[in-house]
Amino acid sequence: MDLKKLLQPNTIAVIGASEKEGFGGDTCRNIIEYVKDLKNTFFINPKRDYVFNRPCYKSLSDVSVDIDMIVICTPKKTVEPLLIEASKKGCMGAVVFASGYSETGNEDGKKAEESLKKLCKKLNIALMGPNCAGFVNYINNVYPFAFISKKRDRKGNVGLISQSGQICLSLMETQDMRFSYIISAGNGNVITMEDYIDFLVEDKNTKVVSIYLEGVKEPKKFINSLKKAAVRRKPIVVLKAGRSEKGRKNAASHTGSLAGSDKTFDAIFKKYGVIRVDDIEELMATSNMFSIINKLPEKPTFASMNLSGGETGVCADTGYTYGVQFPDFTEETLIKLKEQLPSYASPNNPLDMTASLSYDAELYANALRTIMNDENIGTVLIGYTLLLEIADPAIYYMAEGIKKVVEEGNSKPIIMLPFLENTRNYEYTEKLRKIGVPILPPSMYAFKIVKHLADFIEYEYNDRTLKTALPEYNNLQKTKALSEIESKNLLRKYGMPVGDAYIVKDESEALDAAQKLGYPLVMKIESADILHKSDVGGVKLNINSEKEVLSTYHEILVNVSNHKPEAKINGILMEKMMPKGMEVIIGVNNDAQFGPMVLVGLGGVFVEIFKDVSLYPAPINKAEAEKMLKKLKSYKMLTGYRGGLHYDLEALKDMIVKISNFADKNKNVLSEVDINPLFVYPEGSGVKVADAVVIMKD
Amino acid sequence: MDLKKLLQPNTIAVIGASEKEGFGGDTCRNIIEYVKDLKNTFFINPKRDYVFNRPCYKSLSDVSVDIDMIVICTPKKTVEPLLIEASKKGCMGAVVFASGYSETGNEDGKKAEESLKKLCKKLNIALMGPNCAGFVNYINNVYPFAFISKKRDRKGNVGLISQSGQICLSLMETQDMRFSYIISAGNGNVITMEDYIDFLVEDKNTKVVSIYLEGVKEPKKFINSLKKAAVRRKPIVVLKAGRSEKGRKNAASHTGSLAGSDKTFDAIFKKYGVIRVDDIEELMATSNMFSIINKLPEKPTFASMNLSGGETGVCADTGYTYGVQFPDFTEETLIKLKEQLPSYASPNNPLDMTASLSYDAELYANALRTIMNDENIGTVLIGYTLLLEIADPAIYYMAEGIKKVVEEGNSKPIIMLPFLENTRNYEYTEKLRKIGVPILPPSMYAFKIVKHLADFIEYEYNDRTLKTALPEYNNLQKTKALSEIESKNLLRKYGMPVGDAYIVKDESEALDAAQKLGYPLVMKIESADILHKSDVGGVKLNINSEKEVLSTYHEILVNVSNHKPEAKINGILMEKMMPKGMEVIIGVNNDAQFGPMVLVGLGGVFVEIFKDVSLYPAPINKAEAEKMLKKLKSYKMLTGYRGGLHYDLEALKDMIVKISNFADKNKNVLSEVDINPLFVYPEGSGVKVADAVVIMKD
């Protein structure tokens, strides 16, 4: 199927064209309003001769030319026959608004969607929807979209794809957002969200890809697009549904999407530098910021310039809350600012300029230029609440001053940060937009959004394995836990540090093993049927002599046969006791869509009470392993905390890399790994797997 | 000084009346614009006969009547002579705009402010400022305010006090906020922030007190007002500067305020149920919500009603992030909703109603009524982005439906929650306001704000000691650490569980003490000069015989004389070794303004890595102690975590109450207490102070 036939058609037919409210009427209204040249658009309705004074055809076959794409505004039952008819006219694209398909959750709906999908495949028709609101292609002026919004020029460079038509409409209704494409994907089972994402990542007219996503259906395509965007540094901004259980449930009933594990999405987004936002306003404003600024900043640092002390304080505090860096100005900047500002102002970053400079464009430009030239600063934030109706003339002078500085060629971004929500004055919004200055929402959003900017420029795709171990098949449902020795042997095979161990089946084997291993020893029951060995008296530590080996051997067997008589016993596992190190937990969970996710955290309360863990998709390189560790609050426990030991971080990173490789290579058959604990020893002394369970698919 | 003479004057003179831009001109412009009856307002300017066509007097003495209050628009140097002159005319209130006082941070400025303060006291003049923007009294129509904003009716019930004039202006510029008073306090050294706060808490026309606060100067007055507001359930919403170091610095250079310890303010606000917000938008919108709703909800739970699936998902996820509770609907509600909604909708909370009901007021009212009647729900959130210019007619029907339900007398609050920032349609904002429905900012703010509402109604002043142990004097700067035994004896005196201990000065006393205490023993060096006893070999544990007592006695003395020969030794401290319990840290820090703050947390990494502590002002009752403990993430460690022990929470709470009483009684002389650790034993077995240092002021 060719997405271009859908999104960039030469000829279009609107089936069910009408003047009434509803899909047919509203689509026609939009087309009449926005499409400049209507000669390749055909309205079809057997009951009408004209629609909005344009000729209307009785049926597709009455149209004399081939039709690339049809917009079906009529009910569900008409859809399949129309597609078959259209196909005969050379149609290879279709938009279907009708609902009643898989989103209903019922069998009839699911079947209808399956049938539709099959038909499209057969006819080679790229279909948008069903249960969608259509799309707008602002680049080629194509407007098969069913929701009405206020008329304004929206052509720009944000490519929006949404599983909610209402969110498309909302972003169109924002004051200043400009788009290359707006795509309401609906259920997205024929042409999927992933297809559209890939299209926009590839599209040279799209500078920012903005997505409302309920779930992913084609992980491989999805990852591939994220990777391309990461390498090209094209920002992808995603509002992903499903942080909460109620949010996941809602996604399922809205477009029939399975939202997937939320933490997995966070991990995937981290790997590919995708910007995740939390609501519609943040999606809009983050996309808009990336859309408008002329160039990315070179440093993740900010200056904040304000006209009042109260607002300066809010910037200092809110910036701090969101982790925005305000470095001190250089000495040179401070000296210059002292000359420029009134005597009662004290130059700091954030800066209270006082209002006095804002009534003279030249003075304002001077101060702004001084700050823009400071080597510590990456981006300048101008704190100012631009209102709809201007009461205070300061903006006249400020805007002129900003323009002056921008036109001198200083390429650091300038961003305006208001303190109160409002529709912004149209004239000045437009003036500022034209010179690359976006206006953000009020401070709580604004600082969250500029932190996205800082994170985006700090992301380095060269530091990352841009590969994700996506399972090739995923049809194995049953799982089987390996016994401890099987688990450890498997890990050892993949280069992970596991102590020597023997399974013994009688006294003489036990004594033999003891001699090879040396004392002190650990002895444990070895059985895949017993997961909690201690609970059945199946673990004995600190065995120091032949005599103890023999007595323990029998003791364990008696305990187990008392507690768990039905368990199949493979023998007794004998290992040399390991010295205790710092306890680290490493887990792997094989996500049904995105494959093995590796989890790392310090043992005990760190993981259990504080959930202080890092999760990241396999495979993982050493730089990524380091980032995972540094993200832990408990990281400092490993690096000489309170005069304590420095632990062997190199070995720990190697271990993470190895387990991720193991998981990668076994992505189709692995279910879970739980290494708990891994002992991490002091610098230079390595790590060792103390206990491990591997669960494979069967 | 009588605040009413300042804020509710009968006669006013504007000194420096003018038509130019600036304090004089802008104040006159505001008065002409807003004050209905100008017969008691007198303009004074020696150079003018008329100002805006109103007669202007050469000087105050030319005015024939007494003047209650003067507004000084002229420069700093004129202020004191004017006050003296005005006093002769019976003046007891003044507004001073001029800056150049204590906010400069320099000696001249501070002196000028000291002098001004003294003069006002002498003349009995209640002075607002200096370095302020004046005030508006909307109730009595008094308008000595120097900033210009768009004309609209702003009379309402929010009392605003701000240390930033710009923040006053910002809140006036918001679309829909309505005030009883707006007060720009400026430096606030004559009439203080605390005076204004108390005035508004007492004022019956003020429903919500809204504050931008840089620092507190009169803690006693402040606390007293908070207490009154807590008991009357009048919401106080505070934007307090100084979350960050840079924010604290900015407050100091803005109005010369010392921002104080930020965590102390959090603790104080918690005790009195004060709502702390983080930026100007949140201050505005939180105040506005409390101002508009007709009645507080009875439950801290919410229903969310939306017109689209995407928006419903955002509500579910964002609500979850901010801890907003969306309980499930009752069976009855679900049955009714299923009848009312289209067949493809699935009734959940948050609810995707689909757009279909929003084009019929009756159907919309039915669904709303059904949800309002659900016993699980406290407040209903209507998700809808009202725009400035209405494109979609849904709001006509929704507003009518809402009105219908409200007028039936259902008293649960209804709040509108938009998804994008905008100036809201004036007509509908007003319609909704009149029936008690506020419109919040977009979702990130909105959910934070409705969580404030939930917290506010959950606060119970009856559960709290509404007392704070404010120091009566605070002139002792030097501190002196008590030795361990002195510290413990002091704590024992206040009923805290401390083991028996003896100081021994020779071998025979040591043997004697051993016999009285029993084995095993701990022996430690006792010296106020040695804080870290272990570091000098001054601590020995697990002493089990007379022989060991004697050898240890000498060993400790030798160690100490080697490591710390200059220390004054009081002897050797002997104690019975305590069994180990769960280690808890209890600290007290005596805040210079708000007195002793009690800190509780679990020992070790809990406090040190995760900063998992509760801080609360003394004195503390048992219910408050319980809240402190429950706030800890590590609380579960005390309550049978992973099948572990249940610790003696009753004894721990008693301990917190006792240490807070001790701190309260010693609030003028105590500097610090550090109990580390307190051993907490299993249920019924109490707690015991294992180590303690008390530092007193000297």
From TrEMBL, chains A, B:
SMART domains, sorted: CoA_binding
Entry annotated with the keyword Magnesium: no
The organism's place on the tree of life at top rank: Bacteria
Residues annotated as domain ATP-grasp: 488-698
GO MF annotation terms: ATP binding; ligase activity; metal ion binding
Gene3D superfamilies to which the protein is assigned, alphabetical: ATP-grasp fold, A domain, ATP-grasp fold, B domain, NAD(P)-binding Rossmann-like Domain, Succinyl-CoA synthetase domains
Keyword 4Fe-4S set for record: no
Keyword vocabulary terms for this entry: ATP-binding, Ligase, Nucleotide-binding
Similarity-based family: In the N-terminal section; belongs to the acetate CoA ligase alpha subunit family.
Protein name, UniProt field: CoA-binding protein
Species per Swiss-Prot/TrEMBL record: Clostridium fermenticellae
